[in-house]
Amino acid sequence: xxxxxxxxxxxxxxxxxxxxxxxxxxxxxxxxxxxxxxxxxxxxxxxxxxxxxxxxxxxxxxxxxxxxxxxxxxxxxxxxxxxxxxxxxxxxxxxxxxxxxxxxxxxxxxxxxxxxxxxxxxxxxxxxxxxxxxxxxxxxxxxxxxxxxxxxxxxxxxxxxxxxxxxxxxxxxxxxxxxxxxxxxxxxxxxxxxxxxxxxxxxxxxxxxxxxxxxxxxxxxxxxxxxxxxxxxxxxxxxxxxxxxxxxxxxxxxxxxxxxxxxxxxxxxxxxxxxxxxxxxxxxxxxxxxxxxxxxxxxxxxxxxxxxxxxxxxxxxxxxxxxxxxxxxxxxxxxxxxxxxxxxxxxxxxxxxxxxxxxxxxxxxxxxxxxxxxxxxxxxxxxxxxxxxxxxxxxxxxxxxxxxxxxxxxxxxxxxxxxxxxxxxxxxxxxxxxxxxxxxxxxxxxxxxxxxxxxxxxxxxxxxxxxxxxxxxxxxxxxxxxxxxxxxxxxxxxx
Amino acid sequence: xxxxxxxxxxxxxxxxxxxxxxxxxxxxxxxxxxxxxxxxxxxxxxxxxxxxxxxxxxxxxxxxxxxxxxxxxxxxxxxxxxxxxxxxxxxxxxxxxxxxxxxxxxxxxxxxxxxxxxxxxxxxxxxxxxxxxxxxxxxxxxxxxxxxxxxxxxxxxxxxxxxxxxxxxxxxxxxxxxxxxxxxxxxxxxxxxxxxxxxxxxxxxxxxxxxxxxxxxxxxxxxxxxxxxxxxxxxxxxxxxxxxxxxxxxxxxxxxxxxxxxxxxxxxxxxxxxxxxxxxxxxxxxxxxxxxxxxxxxxxxxxxxxxxxxxxxxxxxxxxxxxxxxxxxxxxxxxxxxxxxxxxxxxxxxxxxxxxxxxxxxxxxxxxxxxxxxxxxxxxxxxxxxxxxxxxxxxxxxxxxxxxxxxxxxxxxxxxxxxxxxxxxxxxxxxxxxxxxxxxxxxxxxxxxxxxxxxxxxxxxxxxxxxxxxxxxxxxxxxxxxxxxxxxxxxxxxxxxxxxxxxxxxxxxxxxxxxxxxxxxxxxxxxxxxxxxxxxxxxxxxxxxxxxxxxx
Lengths: 495, 552
Description:
Chain B: InterPro entries: Adhesion/Biosynth-related, FAS1_dom_sf, FAS1_domain. The structure holds 2 protein chains of 2 kinds. Chain A is mainly alpha-helical. Chain A has a domain at 40-72 and 88-248 and 475-494: Serine Threonine Protein Phosphatase 5, Tetratricopeptide repeat (Alpha Horseshoe), CATH 1.25.40.390. Chain A has helices at residues 2-18, 43-59, 62-71, 85-91, 105-127, 133-157, 182-197, 208-213, 217-230, 234-247, 260-267, 287-293, 303-308, 360-373, 377-391, 406-420, 427-440, 443-453, 459-466, 478-483, and strands at 77-79, 161-162, 179-180, 273-277, 297-299, 327-328, 333-334, 355-359. In chain A, the strands form 4 sheets. In chain A, strands 1-5 form a two-stranded antiparallel ribbon. In chain B, β16 and β17 form a beta hairpin. Chain B has 3 domains: 40-171, FAS1 domain (Roll), CATH 2.30.180; 182-331, FAS1 domain; 345-550, Jelly Rolls, CATH 2.60.120. Chain B is of the alpha+beta class. Chain B contains 15 helices and 33 strands. Chains A and B meet through α1 and α19 of A and α1, β4, β5, β6 and α13 of B.
């Protein structure tokens, strides 16, 4: 009998070991973090999720790639010996879908953080009644704005992209999303921004850094103006600019050479700033590395001489944005993010000059662009001069357009934007936006610029490619195509 | 008994359990290869649109090596292109081709290197095809759509297909074999009939018919219409205008030289011409100058003594025609050998474009790192810098343009420095170098001067002061002069020495090199370099600190 018991117990153990071991001790939650099911319970959760979005803007590669996409295809920069084959392919119009720079992962990751807040934050109100409706709206508005901002970039860099407007929780979600056209994406961006406009705050009433570093009504309107300009909707763009101008909250900082760089960039959050990504000692910007240490980008060969120009007769007459403003002519380095003032430079540890998303000068020049589109030439010219005079732009590059000469005003405006926003990641988009209007009536803006930096032995092929509008948008990265069968490659890269 | 029965069940259960626990030890079918990417031949075979080309590959006997280890690029014509080609030969299928035909067809589409579209430039790709054909690449824009064009005829329809041993690019047309020489290509074009006649007249046609390995020419041809612009309508006109010996076959005859001036003895596509600013021609010591103005490529456009001489533009749309022994371009205007008389160059070597762009020229000091100046290079460590100095102290004042180039010229720091001069017309020149003397307890360095690699007869000792007692003409006879005007406060400290006489053989930019074998810690402070034709006045003009020439 005893033996039988022994056998029975062996069999029991065997059965036990075969059946799966679903016991509680294997099912513990992490001790140092929250899981999804326990999140979205309190207003602090919402707040930290929104802060997480902001942190993702500065801690990811986003800003380096914004710089790259905005400047790589322009005459503002020159590549140095530290660059790779991939940089050269991008710069010299030889992009292929295997080039990692064509990966849009960073943008969609941030979009998903936003989608998470937009989808899940409203539910918190039911669980935590202390969450005020106004605060909840502001949080969602901020997420909507940043999502719109990301899609705005996607539409300008890749053209047609998939629109994903809800939160992706796991790989089980349907991710086979086809592309939406650029117009549809821009329309979605406008819809998000209009919705956000009524939700976000005008001021956080805490610190200046909060008002400049987080999304406010003014951020939303600056973005709206920009998007409207891409849609060639001048009157709406004008309204959005007017909203900011009339608020009276912003002004151009002084163009005094001893303070301009310091106040506007080195210190930041000036009265000119509308939305700036807030780097600090804990979170340095990537530019010391990109421009100084292992410098990939240097100042374009013609920038100082032909864009800002030099007054040979009077050394004291100079554009404050030129030498020791945006660039250091004697070393060919990009100076905007390095300078404390005209003489002193920041060290690596101090390299936390903010990334300007929008500042008041941008609003003034966007307003000028809208007015020019509405045939209000004189008002547009006045605004351009307002920005020029602040910086003491030289008469040498004053095109003196007449008020009914829309084309010259456009050329003047594009050049002035290049001077004003040098190395702020805007140049390519400015040129593209103006070139593509009226069925690419001003393609010369692109081809003339390309000719300035194209090497002699690639000039003709580069020009040939840039005459194809599809080449102005990047290919879809090859892994995206492999994983998402609904995507179709940009036709330019198929042949 | 019952117990034993139960015991049996127990044993069975135990046995089954043991089996289950031990797991399913079945032999697994492991993949033995490390890579499943097909090689080129397999890729073509399994493709939808390149099967006819694959048949040709098999027929040509190249299938085996296109499936073997190596690096290849294959420009594969699609099936439609292959059918069109075979039909143009009067045949109906690949099997009808002779082995020779198949082999030529296939090998002219293969390059033994991996060339992706990312490597394409204007002009030819780095390697010829196995059959020896150049493959040129360009981009054509049709109705706002850009496409990559090979040999000006085939469009890439499927780029950069990566296979195990290289790349496949699908193209829509079989490459036409190149059968003509340069001369035959010129003769085939009725527009160039006068140019062809003139070549025959001078006997240069024989040269342009030679097909030899590694010997190529580039011809800048002139059409009848362009000749007519200049009033030349027939060979007789040409002969009247140029042939001064009566025998155009004589290489010293001006007609021969005029025609030979249109031939560059090297393979230069337009993009290659653009890369350098001067190219030698078939005429001894005569070069063509190239200037790039946006998209326009201009031959012999230059500023000469303050005047702009208009050049001839290359007609890019009909240039870059590949032939067996070179490439044919066409000009929109004729080019001429220019009779130029030597004239003096008074050169401030610190006047470099990069220093001007930096905005410091005549204004501020600048430490110049290696590689910063395109036209100046020097020896020594990577960190060895030279100095541009413009803010001069009282005992320095006098330097022309108020600046000096300071080079720590000594064997331990910068043993040599090379500078590219401005364009010097061919002729015989005296070379003068002026510097600010430095008398140091360290002693002086002896500096040798070379022009185009040939050492000049006299060296400089940088501690040598100018003799201030001798009259100017006697000083000149000794090979020294004073190059400054007025009496600036530092004038006594400047010296100018004639370092030798040099024969400049071609009108071009040349190289001057300063080199020392001594190692004293006394830098060389260079002010100016003069190239003055031997038969001209050597002392005047002198210069003031603003760079103005002053005559007596």
